[in-house]
Amino acid sequence: MAPLRLLALIGSSRNEESETFKAIRLIEQKISQIRATEVETIFIQKLGLPFCDGCLTCVTTGEETCPEYSLIGPIAEKMDHADGIILGAPVYTFNVTGLMKNFVEYFMYKRNRPSFFGKKAIVIAAASGGGHKVVLDFLEGTASAWGCDVVSRMGISSSQMHKERYLQRVDEAAEDVAKTFVAEIAKGELGSPKFPQLMNFRAMQNMTRGQKGLKNYAYWEERNWLDAEYYTGAPVTPFARLMAGWIARKMRKSIRKGNVRPVR
Ligand SMILES: Cc1cc2nc3c(=O)[nH]c(=O)nc-3n(C[C@H](O)[C@H](O)[C@H](O)COP(=O)(O)O)c2cc1C
User: Fold this and answer.
1) Which of 18, 149, 162, 259 would disulfide-bridge 191, Cβ 3.0–4.6 Å?
2) Which atom of ligand 1 is nearest the CA belonging to 127?
3) pLDDT 10s digits, 20-42
C-alpha cells in the first residue's frame, strides 16, 4: 500500500519549538503506527509572506495574478496532492494567530472556488489555558470552505503539558484523532455537509450569482453550482436541506429589495 501523504501547515512563530507542532508530531507518530506515512511540514512563519494586500485579483481574475503566487502556488499544489491536510495554530488573544490568519487570506479564492472535495483534514490548536474552540472552529470552517471534510480535531493546553495525567489524556486523544484520520482517508467517501457548510454554500451561491464576468461565475457555471443545493452529491438530511434553501431564499429577497440592515 502506498504511504499516506500528509501536509501539515503550522501557524506558530515558534515553529519546531511550538506545542502546536509537538501535538501534531504526536498525532503523526500515531498515524505511522497504523500506516506508512510521509509528512511534509510547512512552517508558515518561514515562508516570509507579507500581509495580503487585499487586491482581490485572486477572486476576480484568478489566483495566478496574486502578487505572492510564487509562494502560494506551490503550496496549493502540495495541498492538491496530499491525501490529508493538517492545519495547526496556537490561540493568541482568544483567536487564531495573525500568522495563520494572513496565510489563509491568501487562499480566499479557494473559499470562492473550492476544489478539495473528499480530501480529509484535521485541525489542531494549542493555548496556554483557553480559547481553543474559536481557533478550532476557524480552522475547521476554513478547511471545510476549501472543500475538505474535517474529520477530527484536538486542542491542547500547553500549561498542562508537564503533568503526567494530562499527557496521558493528550496521548489518548491523539490516538483517537490519528485512527479517525487514517480510517476516513482509507474509506475515501465524500462527507455529508453539516448545516454551517450548507449555509456557507448558499451564501457563496448568492454572491457568485451576482458576479457575471468574473472567474468565480465561470467556475460555478461550469460545475452547475449556480442552481444546485450543494457542491457535491453527498447525502444531506432533508431538514437541513430545506432550512438552508429557505434561509437562502430569504437572503436573496433581502438583497434584491435592498432590505439588508447594518449589523449591530
Ligand atoms: C500574543 C499571545 C497571545 C496569547 N493569547 C492567549 C489566549 O488568549 N489564551 C491562552 O490560553 N493562551 C494564550 N497565549 C499562550 C499561547 O496560546 C500558548 O503559549 C501556546 O502554547 C502557544 O502555542 P505554540 O506553543 O504552538 O506556539 C498567548 C500567547 C501569546 C504570545
Assistant:
1) 149
2) 17
3) 999 999 999 999 999 999 999 99
